[in-house]
């Protein structure tokens, strides 16, 4: 359990069924928050683990690229918990990797941009009004170390993650004087289902081969989702009240090379 720094607060986490979002939702609850879990996938496992921590939770089926569904998800949060203090807009998709720019598929481009970039904007669009009415709030948008650099063969993903930094800085400027902070979180390679897709396949029963990323990262390994979640919690608590408009990189030293 944490130190109760989010006692009485309410959070939304998108993409909370698995990976970084699941770890963040549990970490926010451990710090005292009640948490709405928004995902296209079933969040039952995350909800059960939060209930075990003694916090309230609400699981909502929500496609973050659909404005009506995002609006409903935020409305349901306010009905259930009466307030909204923080949000981790983390839902994302990698799309089809291994496509150079001139061979990329138009449908894949639209899908990746709709989920990763439009989804972050839609979430902020509906989360900001209750935060502004309260006069405080903290939004953390799920970006990537790939927000900072080009990486060959996955242009839609890289473009979407760069775009999140732009909308994050813009929102930070627009709402800083009204008590709402907006930051982006930029993880490096993290051990989740999304990354497993890009790792070399090994025979059945053998853990996926992470050595390609371990060799790339100065710390020598991929991150555990819980290590990313600690930073989400920090950005949501009053320990970070002077932090807004920044892209917070947590990458094991990857971008320092
Ligand atoms: N794993 C990494 O190495 C890494 C690194 C940098 C950034 N990220 C980012 O972190 C975020 C989480 O990734 P992860 O690695 O935990 O992946 P993951 O695949 O384990 O989890 C992603 C979650 O998002 C949900 N989701 C996907 N599309 C959605 C939609 N349209 N609406 C609602 N939910 C949707 C999925 O159902 C899933 O539960 C993503 O935005 C990803 O781009 C991941």
From TrEMBL:
SUPFAM superfamilies: NAD(P)-binding Rossmann-fold domains. It comes from the Bacteria. InterPro entries: NAD(P)-bd_dom_sf, SDR_fam. The keyword Oxidoreductase applies. Transmembrane segments: none annotated. GO terms for molecular function: oxidoreductase activity. It holds the Pfam family adh_short_C2. The keyword ATP-binding does not apply. Keywords: Oxidoreductase. Belongs to the short-chain dehydrogenases/reductases (SDR) family. PANTHER family: DEHYDROGENASES, SHORT CHAIN (PTHR24321), ESTRADIOL 17-BETA-DEHYDROGENASE 8-RELATED (PTHR24321:SF8). This is Short chain dehydrogenase. It comes from Virgisporangium ochraceum.
């Amino acid at each position: 359990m944490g130190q109760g720094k989010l006692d009485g607060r309410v959070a939304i986490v998108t993409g909370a069924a698995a990976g970084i979002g699941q770890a963040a939702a549990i970490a926010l609850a451990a710090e005292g928050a009640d948490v709405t879990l928004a995902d296209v996938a079933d969040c039952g496992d995350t909800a059960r683990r939060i209930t075990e921590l003694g916090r309230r939770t609400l699981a909502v089926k929500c496609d973050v690229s659909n404005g009506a569904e995002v609006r409903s998800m935020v409305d349901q949060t306010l009905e259930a918990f009466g307030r909204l203090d923080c949000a981790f807009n983390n839902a994302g998709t990698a799309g089809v990797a291994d496509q150079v720019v001139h061979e990329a598929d138009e449908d894949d481009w639209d899908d990746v941009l709709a989920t990763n970039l439009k989804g972050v904007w839609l979430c902020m669009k509906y989360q900001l009004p209750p935060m502004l009415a309260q006069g405080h709030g903290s939004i953390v948008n799920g970006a990537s170390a790939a927000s900072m650099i080009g990486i060959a063969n996955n242009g839609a993903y890289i473009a979407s993650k760069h775009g999140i930094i732009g909308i994050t800085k813009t929102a930070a400027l627009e709402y800083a004087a009204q008590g709402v902070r907006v930051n982006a979180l930029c993880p490096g390679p993290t051990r989740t289902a999304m990354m497993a897709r890009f790792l070399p396949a090994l025979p059945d029963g053998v853990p996926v081969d992470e050595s390609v990323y371990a060799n790339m990262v100065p710390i020598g390994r991929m991150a555990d989702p819980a290590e990313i979640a600690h930073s989400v919690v920090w950005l949501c608590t009053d320990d970070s009240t002077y932090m807004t408009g920044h892209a917070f990189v947590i990458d094991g030293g990857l971008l320092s090379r």
